[in-house]
């Protein structure tokens, strides 16, 4: 857990099988970013006693959504996903839909901070990142991490992802902390100077 210097809002990492989920909020309410496969009970333990406003999926790959509906049933939080990733969603949940649609620019208020959704297509068509300016935090899923852009997968488009990261994420302050879907945190300014982005 890391306590951030903004009015008791904190960020908790829940790592399950190499995949990170993130919980952002205060002592009363929170949002969950991603729901790793096999991670419902671990995330539920972190959010216990708080109102879960939403379960925000950064993209539709199984490792990041497989416990979303179980976690929703436990906490009452609605699952949000960008519609461009509904095809991936239905590979995991063929008979149920996410409760809410995620779109670029959507805002979510939690505690005393606000998260802004930024669509970053390329790893998947509906890839979303979440920026909390007051916290200096960016939750990136598999779009960007300490080692650069996310791993290639079926249907991914590396050139499109690189372009989206440059245009949508590298305009944010260089001091922003990246909280990725896998691996350790990183500083946006450090990752930005990776020559792969500018080749």
Describe this structure in words.
The protein is of the alpha/beta class. The chain has one domain: Metallo-beta-lactamase, Chain A. It contains six helices and 15 strands. The strands form three sheets. The chain has a seven-stranded mixed beta sheet. The chain has a six-stranded mixed beta sheet with strand order 8-9-10-11-14-15. Strands 12-13 form a two-stranded antiparallel sheet. β9 and β10 form a beta hairpin. It is globular and about 45 Å long. The mean pLDDT is 92.
Helix content: 10-25%
CATH class: Alpha Beta
Instruction: Return the CATH topology.
Output: Metallo-beta-lactamase, Chain A
Low-confidence stretches: none
> Which architecture does the CATH hierarchy give at level 2?
4-Layer Sandwich
Q: Tell me the β content.
A: 25-35%
Q: What string gives the helices and strands in order? A: EEEEHEHHEHEEEEEEEHEEH
Radius of gyration: 15 Å
CATH superfamily: Ribonuclease Z/Hydroxyacylglutathione hydrolase-like
Number-wise, the strands total 15
Number of domains: 1
Structural classification? alpha/beta
Pick out its properties.
Metallo-beta-lactamase, Chain A; 199 residues; six-stranded mixed sheet; globular
